[in-house]
Structures are given as structure tokens and as C-alpha cells.
Amino acid sequence: MHSFGYRANAVVTFAVTILAVMCGMASLSDNFNSPSPTADVKVLNINWFQKQPNGNDEVSLTLNISADLSSLFTWNTKQVFVFLAAEYETPQNALNQVSLWDGIIQSKEHAKFWIHTTNKYRFTDQGNNLRGKDFNLTLHWHIMPKTGKMFADKIVMTGYSLPEEYR
Amino acid sequence: MGWVADGLDSIRSFQIRHVLTQIVSLGMIVTSALIIWKGLTCVTGSQSPVVVVLSESMEPGFKRGDILFLQMNKDPIRAGEIVVFNVDGREIPIVHRVIKVHERHDTGEIQVLTKGDNNFDDDRLLYAHGQLWLEQHHIMGRAVGFLPYLGWVTIIMTEKPIVKFLLIGALGLLIITAKE
Known about the structure:
In chain A, 16% of the residues lie in helices and 51% in strands. Chain A is an alpha+beta fold. Chain B is built from three helices and seven strands; from the N terminus they run αβββββββαα.
């Protein structure tokens, strides 16, 4: 009853249980955080807008993205993955979401940022429906914790549109 | 001479009962583990409710050896979700993020494109030959939670099978020699 084996077993079981409880509580503490992020995106320029040989429209944009996501960080946050997606509707598709840019924020200090960039991923449509298209730019973020539940949310910014003609 | 035969008989029956009890206890442990696993499959709606991250394509968020908890429901897949999918012809499931979604009006069918956070290119090269998009039926689950480091046990047992045999051998030895 008091051999080394029994004692080791009891200690390890207790340690693992406590570790599991701590992970659970760390994850629960994330629910008490009420974040207040802000974001603003400007389309500075439409660099070019063409129909590709495969029949799909493609557009290249220069964007200015500024955001303050520091209120999303808690002590249990490992990183925040943030991406900007263009969302629009076409006659064929009820919803299209195309990611234009993404980034990884690893600490609260880098969470207030301003970036001037062309789209990192190609903005292509399934078809050629983009002329004169109105679209939303949505900034999505995905909070990846040190342990536990992952949270995701977004800010939708409306009012952007593409030119009527190819250029 | 009669009591020698009696003595031998009682020893033999005692040992058989002991061995049978141990076999039944082992069976109970294995069955409970199976019940928990299948129960998790039901609750989360995904065929493999827990997966181990095997590659570095999602660093620095998910490192090799981390465990992901998956869930699956009928909600449509949206951009930004981290999904686990199987490509036809490959047995190992891949855990990447959705970067493009196209949903049809008429059928509600969805076509998605995925990419690992740490990869330069999207996953088109990983899909089956000629496949441009993933559809809802390719996707086994969405990652909703995560625990670091716990998957290393599985990785070591898969990549160095000697450890697996050593562990099972040691467990077997413990069961046989334990005097309960």
C-alpha cells in the first residue's frame, strides 16, 4: 500500500488532474474578456482589373489597413490570426469570400497596426461578374489561445466597389 | 495420496480464477476507453474528435505535437475556420485554414480553398489531380479547441514503434506480477 509504485501512481494522477483543471480554468477566463477592436480599410488604388484566359475576373488592389486589436489579448492568448476578406454576391453564388491579406499578431504591442500593401492573395472570381460589383471588406480575427477554446469574430466594412470597366 | 491430489486441485482452480479476473479487468478498461472515444464521436459530430498536429504548416499557432479538438455540424464552412480534411488517396488528414469560399445559390453547395498559415502557397498542390476546390463532404471537422504538447506521445509511438512495444511489454509485465 505504501510502495513506490502506488505512491508514484497517486502523485502522477493528481498532477495530471490538477493540470487539466488549470487548463480548463485558463480557457474559461477568456470568456470574461470583453474586447473592443476597431478597424479601418481604404482601397487606395485599383492596380489592374482583367479577365483571365480561364474566364475568371481578377483584380489587383492596393490597400491601407489600420486596426487596433489590442483589447483581444488576454494572458491566455498565444497569437491572433487576422485576415481581410472581400465578400460579395454574384448571380451564380449566394456568397463569395476571398481572403486578400492575412497576418499573425504575436503580442499585444503589435496589435495596433497600420499596413500599406497590395493584396497578398489573388482576388479572383468564379466567372466574370466583378465589373461594377459592390463588395464588403471584412476584417476577421481568430484568437489562438495557449490552451483551450479558440474564438473568432469579425468587423464588416461596407461601401466598396469595383470599376465598371476592365483596366 | 488423496490430500495431495486435493491440494493440487485447489491450487490450480485458485490460479485460474485469478487469471480470469485479470483478463476481465483488462477487458473492462479497454471497453471503457472505447466507450469514451465513441461517445466523443457522437457528441462532437466528427469522426475523429481529437487529432494530433503532425506538420509545421500551421506554425506558430499549432506546433507539431499539439492536440486539436474538432467539432462538425451542418453550419456552412466560412472563411477563416480551421478545418480538417482528407484528400482522396492520402490517409493522413490535413489541418489548414479556409481562405476562399464560394457558395451556390441554388444547391447551397460550397467550394473552399485552404492554406496552411506557415505555407507560402495555397493547398491546390495537395488536392487530388485536377481538383481545384474542397467540398463540404471532404471536411471532417472544424478545430474549436487546442492543448499544447500532449500529442507527442502519439507521435513517438507512431514514428518509433519500439517505444510502443516496450510500453505494452512493461504494462503486460506489471499486470502479471501485480499481486492484488
